[in-house]
């Protein structure tokens, strides 16, 4: 069965599908000696080279989760000294699924599986992300009502969501969309500043038992559950789905 060129490249774990598109656009990929292009299909037995070198043999996909500390940036750019890839320091090429702001902390997934990345990032799938958020001052009931109903930020109106007060200036929020810096900008729009933000759950996976700065592999049960949740993923994207 043939497959798209960018998927073929990302499936080897060499890079993400988006990065594969960049290699293709930069005329650095050949298929059977001919320059590859975005619509190229690859059949079994085809010879794909990047910068004249064969791709690594496909390895079993890796799935791990990290309790990201503050100060680590969710980028694969190794020139950024705070990049998440060097922080995890895993022997195989992996990339984060979505992002957490540099000043935010908590649960983030990393993998070599480009397919699952794309499925999870489609916010239209409604996968839940749960956060604990602390603001610079106590808030009132009106703040909670507005956060629950949706807040107008530069990207548009946020979707209604679950919000529960945990302390005078701390609340729990569950999002099913992933606009860039969404929670911080929702709070700013209502006159509050976020002083601490921690993601404690993605879908059915929680931070329980994972200390700050540490990572672990998914258990087989967690992986099976994750794959079942994304099995019927929609093909329409709406934002990146795993921001904060």
UniProtKB/TrEMBL annotation:
Stretches of the chain forming a coiled coil according to its record: none
An example molecular function term from Gene Ontology annotations: RNA binding
Pfam hit, one: PseudoU_synth_2
Matches recorded under Gene3D superfamilies: Alpha-L RNA-binding motif, Pseudouridine synthase I, catalytic domain, N-terminal subdomain, RNA-binding S4 domain
**In the UniProt record, does the keyword Isomerase occur?**
yes
| GO terms under biological process | enzyme-directed rRNA pseudouridine synthesis
Q: What class of enzyme is it?
A: isomerase
Which residues does UniProt assign to the signal peptide? none
**Residue ranges annotated for the RNA-binding S4 domain, each copy included:** 3-61
Q: Which domain of life is it from?
A: Bacteria
Catalytic reactions on record = uridine(2604) in 23S rRNA = pseudouridine(2604) in 23S rRNA; uridine(35) in tRNA(Tyr) = pseudouridine(35) in tRNA(Tyr)
PANTHER family from the UniProt entry? PSEUDOURIDINE SYNTHASE FAMILY PROTEIN-RELATED, RNA-BINDING S4 DOMAIN-CONTAINING PROTEIN
Instruction: State the similarity comment.
Output: Belongs to the pseudouridine synthase RsuA family.
| Name of this protein | Pseudouridine synthase
From the broadest rank down, the organism's phylogenetic lineage runs: Bacteria, Pseudomonadati, Bacteroidota, Chitinophagia, Chitinophagales
């Amino acid at each position: 069965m043939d497959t798209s060129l960018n998927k073929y490249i990302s499936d080897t774990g060499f890079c993400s599908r988006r990065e594969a598109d960049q290699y293709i656009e930069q005329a650095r990929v050949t298929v059977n000696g001919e320059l590859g292009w975005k619509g190229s299909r690859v059949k079994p037995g085809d010879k794909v080279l990047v910068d004249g070198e064969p791709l690594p043999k496909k390895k079993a996909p890796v799935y791990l989760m990290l309790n990201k500390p503050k100060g680590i940036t969710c980028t694969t750019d190794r020139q950024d000294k705070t990049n998440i890839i060097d922080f995890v320091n895993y022997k195989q090429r992996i990339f984060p699924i979505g992002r957490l702001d540099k000043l935010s902390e908590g649960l983030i997934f990393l993998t070599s599986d480009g397919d699952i990345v794309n499925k999870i990032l489609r916010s239209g799938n409604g996968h839940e992300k749960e956060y604990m958020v602390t603001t610079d001052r106590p808030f009132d009931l009106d703040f909670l009502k507005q956060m629950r109903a949706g807040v107008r930020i530069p990207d548009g109106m946020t979707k209604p969501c679950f919000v529960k007060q945990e302390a005078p200036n701390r609340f729990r929020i569950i999002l099913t969309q992933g606009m860039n810096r969404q929670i911080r900008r929702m709070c700013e729009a209502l006159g509050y500043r976020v002083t601490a933000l921690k993601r404690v759950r993605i879908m059915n996976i929680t931070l329980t038992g994972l200390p700050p700065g540490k990572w672990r592999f998914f258990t087989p049960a967690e992986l099976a559950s994750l794959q079942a949740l994304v099995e019927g993923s929609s093909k329409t994207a709406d934002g990146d789905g795993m921001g904060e």
